[in-house]
Amino acid sequence: MISLQKPIRKAVFPVAGLGTRFLPATKAMPKEMLPVVDRPVIQHVVDEARAAGIEHFIFVTGRNKGVIEDHFDSQFELERTLAERGKKNELDLLSRDLPDPGQTSFTRQQAPLGLGHAVWCAREIVGNEPFALLLPDMLHHGDPPCLAEMMTSYAEHGGNHVAVSPVPEDQTHLYGIVGVEDSRAKVSAITSMVEKPPRGTAPSNLHISGRYILQPEIFGLLERQERGAGGEIQLTDAMIKLGEELGQPFFAVRFDGEIYDCGSKIGFLLANVAYALARDDLGPSLKSELKRLL
Ligand code: G1P
Predict the structure, then answer these.
(1) What is the topology classification, in CATH, of domain 10-159+210-293?
(2) What are the sequence ranges of the domains in the chain?
(3) What's the gap in Å between 210 CA and the centre of ligand 1?
(4) HSE-up (13 A, CA, CB side) for residue 29
(5) Which residue in 11, 135, 260, 271 could disulfide with 49, CB within 3.0 to 4.6 Å?
(6) Mind listing the pLDDT tens digit for each residue in 70-128?
(7) How far apart are the CA of 164 and the centre of ligand 1, in A?
């Protein structure tokens, strides 16, 4: 299919969060660098973006996040030592993950004013083109990968897309929630959106799971810096305005894989187990060890 839509080349990763839920592990290390098996959480999310054809990776960082920048750089001494020791597999692994020169950008969110503000911090680097946004806490485990599925839908429909998946009714107040035209369809037009609706008021149980394709007009709306739920500058509020004031369409793409919220301890632990079980080199032995433990 030849797409008439402007291509999505850039992805934004907001990685400024403090990670207080993982103290003391995150006292000196960013939460995005915690490993899920042997890859940092942020690497899994960058992998997903790469698999969807993203060419430029934009990190919105904060204080004490410098090691993320180092992770996506080459490590000359390490590579030389590996080469001297003939560790070809390890060298291949590192070079496979390394972005090409100029493919990464880093900017800082100077104050924790909310997700909308973090995204707005990337406006100069994104420029006037549609972009993907991936929240690193939320690992989407599935084949096809989530953002790749959204790209397929974007090529057909254009506009703005969010990934959604159902949550139990008693958790809708924790997320952005969408109402859709057809809740059973894989892709459906969004009819309403609300950030963290009070209990019992959600338009559905479909939560925004942390993957977005957005048009650049979102930046003009975020520029207003209006506060929403929790006193924060909310991305969802700007998306509502993008639909209502500028008339842009929004689509929900239902993700059918597993989602692990690595911002929570249980989600992070489950992600480690699930990603390891899915690997040929670790799955069988982990399975028998887990059986023994339980
Ligand atoms: C953010 C978004 C929310 C989304 C959630 C997914 O909320 O504002 O719409 O459902 O991520 O994790 P936060 O987790 O920052 O409170």
Answers:
(1) Spore Coat Polysaccharide Biosynthesis Protein SpsA; Chain A (3.90.550)
(2) 10-159+210-293
(3) 7
(4) 14
(5) 11
(6) 999 999 999 999 999 999 999 999 999 999 999 999 999 999 999 999 999 999 999 99
(7) 12
